[in-house]
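hey m, so remember when u said the tokens were messed up on ur end? i reran from scratch. heres the input so u can diff it against urs
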Amino acid sequence: MAMKRATFCVYILCALLFICSCSSDPQKSALRELERRKIPFTEQKFLEKAYEGDTDAVKQFISAGINKEARTAEDGYTALIIAAHAGHAEIIRMLVDKGSDVNTTDNTGITALMRAAFNGHADCVKVLLDSGAEANLIATGQRGMTALMFAASAGQAEVVRLLLAKGAYPDIRSTDGNQALMYAQLSGNAETVALLTSSSPNINTPNDKQINALHIAIKRHERQQAAILITKGANVNTSDETGFTPLMLACLEGEAATAKLLIEYGAFVNATYNTNGRTITPLMIAAMKGHESVVRLLVKMNADKSIQDGQGNNAASYARHNGFEYIARMIEGRD
């Protein structure tokens, strides 16, 4: 009887030792937990869980020894890039704490920071920056854009503010010559434009087509943005590649309020550009387009009504030729 009890105790002790040895091995415990949840221990499933924001599953994968730098076959996304894209700050923190490369890129050179910045995940951006993400890396396969440019292009003002505070350079140019400010203009977000206007060393820098931020704002009828740029010192007389000045663009687009502000800040009312042997003025442009309020403004601001285009036509002629007799008479002082 004593022998049976001793044998039984030995069995119990062995069982306890086995259980303890298993529970003390984090890798085995993690694998068992994944198995319990019916989650296959594969890199694909690991990446899926990072996208879904399944923090516990990602933790178990890491503990079980998954390759943290595993990538999607097509685009080269890592779990960190995927989590940043989806906005999962806790998973990002877990991955970088466990040694994931915070500056790794996908197949086009986009980093986790760029993904988070474009999608406006400010909490993710903060975690990444605090973990050593480089704010000024360039996405070689994406026109040489930076995280700041991605944020600006999406109108993500809060992220732009974070990036600028962490040393992001607003004067870097993409491969087509655009700075973050120009991308902000295209987004239509006035707050982002204001932030970058205040931070950019030269808001007059043009892109490869000699188009600058002010030209873009006027062409897009972004009056508030144009006003910000004008009052912050944008050059009101610089020409784009076609020879159009900001005032000419305002006349073309019928933007009377912007035209008035441009003139108040020194725009040349009688600026000219030459095209196909003709000399064109802002008044001629407004007249041919039939923009009555702009024509009235220019006449009030003493625009020269007598200037001819080299072929005998003046502003009134252009208005009349395009069927705007009332504007022609206004220019001639007969309205």
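this time it looks ok to me. The chain is about 55% helix and 0% strand. if urs says something different then somethings off w ur setup not the seq
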